[in-house]
Design goal:
This is trypsin. The chain is mostly beta strands. Helices cover about 5% and strands about 35% of the residues. The chain has two domains: about 5-120 and about 235-244, Beta Barrel (Thrombin, subunit H), CATH 2.40.10; about 140-230, Thrombin, subunit H, CATH 2.40.10.
């Protein structure tokens, strides 16, 4: 069996045909080069992201090394619609467990509110009163990760794929999945998030339900992608926003 692994960092936003509410984060390394990875827009001045991310994004004292870019689509191109922000606050979830990826979520506060328009919109959080997602519910995941497992090249343009909810995910990841995770993929394989997609959004019926976190390989039959279950963190998100 393949080893459990997270789905590492990648980049950017605004898909031309369907909304994706995504953004690009840049981390500068010691050589001054940019490393891209994604998070998901939540509030006009906050973004959600995973803790399976570059070190600068996980450590509050290195927030000066992070930039957030909204309204990006093709990574290499300057299209004229981008909004670029510094990060003023990094809030890690206090119960994150790096050996299981449980509570794989954090909040980044932008240095100023985003300008909302037709290209930059907040993602709708789930209704806490709504029923659990049904097995087979159709969702969409998007990102700039690799398009096949052994590739070394990230996608230069935002891509998306429809995946189905696996309500019995514990059956496939015995003792590995917690109540803070949801799974989505295809029983037949071929549809999944992959390396470079960490932090990407899982949108179900217009709601931001999941954050790409980890999995075994990519797009394997009966090994769906594993996502942070956003609805379990609504209280924590609201508390951070109100008290920061």
């Amino acid at each position: 069996m393949a080893a459990m692994s997270y789905k590492p960092n990648t980049p950017v936003c605004v898909e031309k045909k369907k909304p994706c509410w995504e953004n690009l984060l840049n981390e500068s390394d010691t050589r001054g080069e940019g490393k891209g990875w994604k998070s998901y827009k939540n509030e006009p001045d906050y973004t959600l992201s995973p803790l399976t991310a570059p070190p600068a994004c996980r450590e509050p004292n290195r927030k000066h090394m992070i930039q957030v870019v909204l309204s990006e689509h093709i990574i290499q191109n300057v299209e004229g619609f981008e909004q670029i922000f510094n990060v003023s606050l990094v809030v890690r979830h206090y119960q994150y467990q790096h050996w299981t990826f449980d509570n794989d979520i954090m909040l980044l506060k932008l240095d100023r509110p985003a300008i909302l328009n037709t290209r930059v919109e907040p993602a709708a959080l789930p209704d806490p009163r709504s029923p659990p997602m049904a097995n087979g519910a159709r969702c969409t995941v998007s990102g700039w990760g690799v398009t096949w497992l052994n590739s070394y090249s990230l996608s230069p343009v935002l891509r998306s794929v429809d995946v189905d909810i696996f309500s019995n995910c514990w059956y496939y990841y015995y003792f590995r999945v917690t109540d803070n995770m949801i799974c989505a993929g295809s029983y037949f394989g071929g549809k999944d998030s992959c390396q470079g997609d960490s932090g990407g959004p899982l949108v179900c019926d217009g709601k931001f339900e999941g954050i790409v976190s980890w999995g075994i390989g990519c797009a394997y039959s009966y090994y769906p992608g594993v996502y942070t279950k956003v609805r379990n963190y609504l209280g924590w998100i609201n508390w951070v926003v109100q008290n920061s």
